[in-house]
Protein: Glucose-6-phosphate 1-dehydrogenase
Organism: Melioribacter roseus
Amino acid sequence: MNNDKHIYTIFGASGDLTRRKLIPALYSLYVQNLLPDKFIILGAARSPLSNEDFRNIMKESILNSNEIHDKSSAEEFLKHLYYIGLQYDNPNDYIQLKEYLEKLRSKFDIPGNTIFYLSTPPSLYKVIPVHLAAVGLNETDDGWKRLIIEKPFGFDLQSAIELKDLLLKDWKEEQIYRIDHYLGKETVQNVLVTRFSNGIFEPLWNRNYIHHIEVTAAENIGIENRGGYYDSIGALRDMIQNHLLQVVGLISMEPPSSLEPLSIRNEILKVFQSLRPLRREEVAKYAVRGQYISSVINNETVKGYREEKNIKPDSKTETFAAIKFYIDNWRWGGVPFYIRTGKRLPTRVTEVVIHFKPTPHFLFTRKNIQEACNKLILRIQPDEGMLLEIGIKTPGAGFEVQNIDLDFRYSELAHQRIPGAYERLLHDTIRGDNTLFARTGEVIEAWKFLTPILEEWSNNPNVPLYGYPAGTWGPKEADNLFDDENQTWHFPC
Ligand code: BG6
């Protein structure tokens, strides 16, 4: 895989994602010498901007980002940025785009290698690729062409299938990179390494030793300025369909036969194919939804979801979702998985908690059985690390047991910077490595699994939407997903 000379075209270049994530990530690659000696970043969007305007906006975003920057390297980097205004649905504009790309190529001696990043509203995923193909910008005779698509890929099973069929008419599967930024997180990739590089975990990583598994992605922010998008999407589509199911895939997959992209992706696909389908009448038992309501946090009143900008006053969109499910295969038969996500929860944390079964017999004094179960906590963010909870003897007379933590934090690794998720993934799109990108089959299977929940939530008026005060851990009804009344979610501090 090479760092070929190329043009990185970003549609939606005047948008938030380009400013906040994509350009700072590309800049960070640039200062680390991870971009080729010849490259152009071409912004494309509806706004009529000049190259200078575009460079100035991006300069600010680079200098405001956390990326390693110094003024002179930023200036040098900005010289690689160009801009073209276009109407996404106007075929003539794509002819102009093609001509402009050719002009840039010949000026800077760059072959036809081109990336098209769709950082646009999802409705345009059906529009831009078709127009690009109509002018031959999907053709690979003069260099590779790659199409990067943000989530959500489709809105439900039907629309995802339609989008897949539409794209595959003009683009080959290996040209399409479905980006899921969770897969770009170092700690998410580390799930694979922890599992398959340590002889001590894998023998225990199954139904014989694991009692249940939890995945939590909590956010303390609300929906910020994304009301228009969020209200039509909700937590299940925004976080679970993609990010959290991908994490589940890595936790539960079989060892891949190699690190080849297909080998890894195939194992994840098998997990998704083994998700036990839910019947609509079971949804209430296995899924809980909530929506935050106004509350006072640190003496400040926080708005409820329905009072936020661009939200319908009677919106039924969930800002919290929790589900319990099973993976019906030999490794996981009978092991419950619990996943939850929500906005306006008490803190920002994403973690995986592996709860091991207790010892077959309690020899020592224990306060309660819950404490007798070892836990392995993979802290995805923000305090990246790993923690193993084990019992030791309480010093003194007798044999009382107490739990202690074997705790590792990435911050303890001297001089090891954790690259941002977009930085890693954008680099992979340039190198042509699609290991960390979701493939069609996975996306379709994920939608298939969630369809009964989506249908039930949108069509059955009797399914409760629980209100939870902003700043709390979501509806208490989410605790009822556990069969055992002594069991509850792990609440990270
Ligand atoms: C995005 C969602 O994909 O992920 C957002 O659309 C969410 O709603 C974000 O806030 C969370 O990402 P991270 O990296 O902060 O966990």
